[in-house]
Amino acid sequence: MPDPRTQIVADAYDDMGETFAAWRERIVGDPRDEWANELVSRLEDGSRILELGCGAGSPETKRLAQRFAVTGVDISPRQVERARAAIPEAEFVCADFSELELPIGSFDAVASFYVFNHVPRELLGPLLASIHGWLVPGGWLLTAFGQSDNPGWTGEWLGAQTFFAGFPPEVNSRLVREAGFRIERDEVVTFEEPEGPASFQWVLAQA
Ligand SMILES: C[S@@+](CC[C@H](N)C(=O)[O-])C[C@H]1O[C@@H](n2cnc3c(N)ncnc32)[C@H](O)[C@@H]1O
Questions:
Q1: N or C: which terminus of the chain carries fewer CB neighbours within 10 A?
Q2: Of all atoms in ligand 1, which is nearest to the CA of residue 123?
């Protein structure tokens, strides 16, 4: 059973349907490609990538799936359905990644784009520790954390009730290190969402 706050998030993305992808298309200056290139340049063709919170599968998921063995995980059944239809070359699993059990050392990289700001605060450290365990030694984590000091907020976003939480950048970085990672690159990047400027903390780290 997912945490009730996580269930709110799952229901939100089910309710949103295609609204989220349409909203994402209107973002200007998303640094996702640049950061994904940092990851890709460190991986061999055919590497196993686990994407957490893949949603309906972004253009980045599709690009990664052309060169790597991608497994996407998302808690929203409706988004997973769309991802399977859009990117048949990848594998998709409908699950709460906070409760996921995967074999130790089964991935070369874990990527997650704009997802961890939906994770209840006390679950973030244990999640990072799980990710470290799922990676081979020397494997890579790439993620964009939220960067606001938010103990937890439930409310309407893009027409659906959802949940957001997060830590300031120095706490995110500390949690990454405490999970056993060495941080390679760590920057707060601002870009334009349809409603105005938004900042996320990008971290590339090695297990
Ligand atoms: C902001 S969307 C980002 C989707 C995709 N990464 C992208 O950039 O287009 C967040 C996604 O994370 C998923 N998500 C949030 N918490 C999750 C959890 N605990 N387990 C699995 N998926 C989760 C949501 O269902 C949603 O599809």
A1: N
A2: 19
CA distance 134 to 173: 19
Using CB distances shorter than 6 Å, the residues near ligand 1 are 6, 9-10, 13, 24, 53-55, 58, 73-76, 79, 96-98, 113-115, 118
Q: 114 alpha carbon to ligand 1 midpoint, in Å?
A: 7
Query: Two tokens at 194?
Result: 């349809």
Residue 53 CA to ligand 1 centre (angstroms): 3
CA–CA separation, 65 and 9 (whole Å): 26
Kindly state the DSSP code that residue 28 receives in the 8-state scheme: B
Question: Any idea how long the chain is?
Answer: 207
Contact 32, 144 (CB under 8 A): yes
The domains found in the chain, sorted by start residue, are 4-206 (3.40.50.150)
Catalogue the E-assigned strands of 9-68: 48-52
The mean pLDDT value for 65-93 works out to 98
CA distance 187 to 138: 21
Q: What is the CA radius of gyration of the chain?
A: 16
Confidence of residue 17 (pLDDT cuts 50, 70, 90): confident
Testing ligand 1's pocket by substitution, the residue of 3, 6, 19, 75 carrying the most ligand atoms inside 8 A of its CB is: 75
Nearest to 124 by CA among 76, 181, 171: 171
Q: Please, what is the average pLDDT of the chain? A: 97
Q: Tokens standing for 148?
A: 């606001």
